[in-house]
């Protein structure tokens, strides 16, 4: 285990200084960004460079960590995953009753024509004495295809997660996003059957994103919908790409966030319903996080011996933002896990509750592995 990398993180924690450590999907290396002071910086106009952490409520300011120091761990040691355990979760009947009623309210509003889809969530509170670093390392071992992170700011709090969903990537002018909807447990079948509810939900989300980007992104292309595995769950995913000007990045993010996959359609009506009816503050759950305007430099000359041409370098600007799903918030010895699901006119409240139980196991498995 590369102690100096994690010791630096531990030192920042002890000194209550902001940092984020993360690994991108299907990559080996882990990156850590350290801010040298405890000042709370907020995002202004998407022209800045830093690591952004944004809340669900887009009317609230996003936090920007400054790139005072960056460390890269080129390879996080591989370990065999512990056998997945069948986690038994005690049912909080009061919370279940509230969630069932909440889903029923959402379905009633859809049938009344108020909106087409709404995403409803809940928080699960637990006690734990696990260290943040052990939880993060367990995330890295368990979820190699997800964006795994540990984020901390003394004036905001501590969050960890393993999210499968990209909000957007932007490489110079090339922009890529995705619609992700529909959920079922993985049953050793990489191409499972999907019901009408999940297929309709996926189509609604895809169409909404295409419409939201119309006029802001040129040359929009939609890839065929595919099934993807995220931990013990399966989802439907449709990739969408096009071209956008760098100065339009903020406008594009505003059009996408919060996405239909975490909020609903239309956005403003469903967001208002969520803020009023969910009866708790999502904070950064279903917000977004990631690298903003990171610069990459490379030689244009592919012949290293031709040193005369090595002065010709290309500098690209890259943004990679992930939706903050499958996450938890750590407050001293208390953990809050966040889970939710998309509600359509065909939703069944009991099945929607069971879906949140299945999603909670993503984080619960990590917690259990540290005990």
Automatic annotation (TrEMBL):
Superkingdom of the organism of origin: Bacteria
This one is known as Chorismate-binding protein
Ranges of residues in domain Chorismate-utilising enzyme C-terminal? 99-295, 314-359
Natural source organism: Zobellia barbeyronii
């Amino acid at each position: 285990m590369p102690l100096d990398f994690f010791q630096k993180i531990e030192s920042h924690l002890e000194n209550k200084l902001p940092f984020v450590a993360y690994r991108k999907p299907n990559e080996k290396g882990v990156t850590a960004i350290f801010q040298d002071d405890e000042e709370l910086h907020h995002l202004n106009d998407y022209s800045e460079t830093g690591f952004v952490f944004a809340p669900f409520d887009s009317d609230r300011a996003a936090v920007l960590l400054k790139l005072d120091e960056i460390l890269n761990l080129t390879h996080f040691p591989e370990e065999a995953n512990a056998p997945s355990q069948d986690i038994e979760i005690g049912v909080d009947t009061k919370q279940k009753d509230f969630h069932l009623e909440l889903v029923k309210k959402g379905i009633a509003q859809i049938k009344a024509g108020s909106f087409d889809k709404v995403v409803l969530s809940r928080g699960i509170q637990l006690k734990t004495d696990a260290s943040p670093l052990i939880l993060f390392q367990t995330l890295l071992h368990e979820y190699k295809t997800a964006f795994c992170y540990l984020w901390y700011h003394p004036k905001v709090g501590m969050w960890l997660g393993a999210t499968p969903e990209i909000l957007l990537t932007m490489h110079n002018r090339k922009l890529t996003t995705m619609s992700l909807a529909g959920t079922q447990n993985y049953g050793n079948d990489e191409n499972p059957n999907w019901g009408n509810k999940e297929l309709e939900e996926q189509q609604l989300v895809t169409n909404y994103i295409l419409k939201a980007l119309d006029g802001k992104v040129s040359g929009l292309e939609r890839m065929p919908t595919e099934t993807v595995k995220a931990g013990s769950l399966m989802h439907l995913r449709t990739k969408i790409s096009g071209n956008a000007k760098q100065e339009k990045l903020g406008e594009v993010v505003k059009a996408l966030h919060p996405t239909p996959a975490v909020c609903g359609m239309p956005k403003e009506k469903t967001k208002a319903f969520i803020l009023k009816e969910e009866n708790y503050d999502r904070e950064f759950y279903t917000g977004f996080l990631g690298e903003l305007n990171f610069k990459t430099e490379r030689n244009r000359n592919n012949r290293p011996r031709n040193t005369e041409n090595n002065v010709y370098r290309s500098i690209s600007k890259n943004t990679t933002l992930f939706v903050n799903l499958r996450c938890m918030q750590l407050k001293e010895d208390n953990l809050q896990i966040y889970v939710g699901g998309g509600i359509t006119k065909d939703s069944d409240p009991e099945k929607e509750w069971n879906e949140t139980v299945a999603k909670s196991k993503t984080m619960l498995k990590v917690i259990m592995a540290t005990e």
